[in-house]
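quick one before i forget lol
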Amino acid sequence: MLIGIDLGTSSVRAAVVDEGGRIQGLGQQEYPIETPRPGWAEQDPEQWWRATCLACREAIVRAAAEPSDIAAISFSGQMHGTVLVDAAGRALGKSIIWADGRGGALAGRLNQALGEERLAELAGNRVAPGFMAATLGWLGEQEPAELARARWALLPKDYLRLRLGGDPASEPSDASATLLFDVRRGAWSGELTQAVGVDGALLPPLARSTDVVGRLSAAAGAELGLLAGVPLVAGAGDQAAQAVGNGVMVSSVASCTIGTGGQVLQPLDAPHADPQLRVHCFCHALPNTWFLMAATLSAGLSLRWWRDTLGLPAEGAYEALDREAERAGIGAGGLLFLPYLLGERTPHMDSGARGAFVGLGLEHSRGHLARAVMEGVALSLRQGLDIMASLTLPPDGLVASGGGAKSRLWRQIQADVLGKPLRTVRGAERAVVGAAMLAGLGVGVYADFDQAREACVHYGDTVTPDRDRVAAYNRLLKVYEHLYPALLPVYVRLAEIRALTADNPSITAEADSDS
């Protein structure tokens, strides 16, 4: 038996997985995102730890597994975030996660100073708020004393592995998403750390995703209900891990994930960065493999926001919205939604962008708005897929992943908007399964990635795009593509107003008293 742990943005999932990739026991524990100031996003590493212990114990009990059954543990995790730890491995306060925007101004300066051409050649990506490069740069300017206390700057899953008894380490799939990493050489970049103004000694040694980088400590084993000494395998960032779990390992197959965020990911046998840096180019968990990735920050999060705004109970809410959205029909009665609730990555790379319903009328019901949210997310991902098609041969088809894959309607919308067959994989929690596959590769359960895929990845139903619906969505896309440029001046003005009211709370109070 193997354990995969996926440290997500809203919860941690741990699973006991057999050698055929089947989950025998699953545990899940939630934790909040803290927003101490507008635009900030933090999480408490201690909460991650407590949640992981509970989730692992829950998984082991549900699997009816003995501690001696577990051959190895590996990890998947939210990308880009930063955990500062001291020499003893203790976290120095909260983790600044991927959704954080405080490094926006610094990211803009870094992008301008380095230039698109050099960034494309070196990092394969644009510096974005929430990436470790922007976060460390911000800390260096705003909280230098805190940064000076740190021995290591770790990514979230790498901190968790350290807490379990692992060595300080990272691996290319997650490290390449820090913007401190040379994607071609597969090493930390002195040029990038110098540009950010941080000491490269803060960054941990690098390993392969399938390397054993420590063993479960006795103290951690007691917390998790496991024996000390279990091998800890490096793991991968969540997108690389879900790609492994979905069998997305060659360029002819891509994945389309709708989780909290949304991603289209296509493997590459050589790095092909977008010269305009509208899509990401990261390292895969497989050796000598990379991937292009288009990212929408608020994918499933947008539908969850709409559910919560309506005040619907969690139980059965998405099924109800599905039924109402299906009745609304293609185009949601002439209503479009921009899913920029946290700003946007692909294709705009604009942390100041904001969400919008456009075309709203009295005739629109909550089902129309739900349909617009689903279509808006898919249209945003289509923009990314189109950019990727200009850089490499398009995939023959896609694999659906994430919570959005549970919705038959949303899967059909994705297939029709993207114009590609969309198939599912039997079994849930593919990032967790991908992490377990990496654990098995690390200790020799599988000889190589091909054998792991054959053993663990079994495809289910395929949703085929409908020609008439594809044509309709292509027309809708042309309208959708005009919205961001048209609203950009509005975003700028609204950002100025938000900054003004944040700095002067009395303005809001005076407005309230005048009313």
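fyi The chain has a mean pLDDT of 93.
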